[in-house]
Amino acid sequence: MDGAPKSDEEFQITITRTHKDYFSAHKALYAVEDAEKAGEIDFAALRRGERPKILSRPWSVEIYPTMACQIDCIHCYAQDRNREYRFKSMPVEMMDRLHVSLHRMGVRGVQYCGGGEPLIWKRGKIAEYIGGLNLDTTRAGMASNMLMGHTLADPETLRRMIFIEVAVFAHDDESYFQVAARRNCPEKVAANVKLLQEVKRDNGLESPAINAKILINQINYRWLHEIYDWSVSVGFDNIHLRLVDDYEDGVEVALTPPQIEEFKHSLLHLCDRYGLDYWRDNIGFILGAKGSSGEHSRCWTVRLGLNAWVLSNGEVYVCGPQWGTPEYCIGNLNFMEFDEIWGGAKHQEVAAKIEDRMMSSGCYKIGCRHIKQTKAINAALEGQVAFPPADEFEPRHSWFL
Ligand code: SF4
Q: Is the bond into 208 cis (omega within 30 degrees of 0)?
């Protein structure tokens, strides 16, 4: 099989302040084990290279309720794309139908995504959908700027959530304004995080983990210590660190090599100050290229149908970085239900096309987490890694791929 693993780093998706298993790609093994137990796949046939049927449900689904956002971050990865979608918002009746399908299929993880901001959709109405998820089968996650985090402050909503990933890129009003062109925000973010932590505490909830995802760009890279101190003072459960990439043409926000060098000194100093050994040990991963090594012509996410992306205009995709490209769209909720689209002729045709083009597109070089999950599945099929035990399902956030 292609893409044989070389080190733990090959499986790591991001680096938390202290070691956490949940950002390791091995969590994908729960999904394939589940499919094997349900008789949907046969490991021996997969090893022989036989093409399996698309699974009867995606393990996890990412939903973009809106392409609009109330702030304007210089590092936004989807500004052009959102403009092309005319900052479209999903109609309520479509969101209703989508959730009926997700419930019918027993999808494990539903992530309400940022880039648009999910909490501005219908003024926080997304909390109602989270509160309605089936606790026996499904959990929610969210990426948000947290400016409307108060709309999640209900125990029945939070009980169904595993994580909330909060974009953090500033430490006071002026720094926030420089990055996102909006005033009076850091205090709102802080107040909302504290409110949600209070609701968790008052109701004995262990989740969701409310995490700061510190995003470093060309404007804020000299403020690392201040941003980190602010994140600690707010009371996040975990802090992640990521250098942004230049996703769209004509946008230069990723650090230049001299800036990376300067940032490295600042990060090492921070590690010294707070004993952040895990960040120090993984500094190469934090500062380095995110792409996956090796050449890849197979992606289990696409081949089995482990994940789906549903956009605010109803388009459905099976490969994240390809969303917005019409020839890779497998269907549209304006014309069919999600569970009718899934596994249909168009889905199969698109999945085959994506894999046929993987080598020439080199999609995995951009740091797609799904190639790391593919490597983890390959390693398990080859007997190089063990399937993780059932009691690690929750700590690994395995509801979401
Ligand atoms: S970008 Fe490549 S590796 Fe990632 S999901 Fe798509 S096909 Fe798979």
A: yes
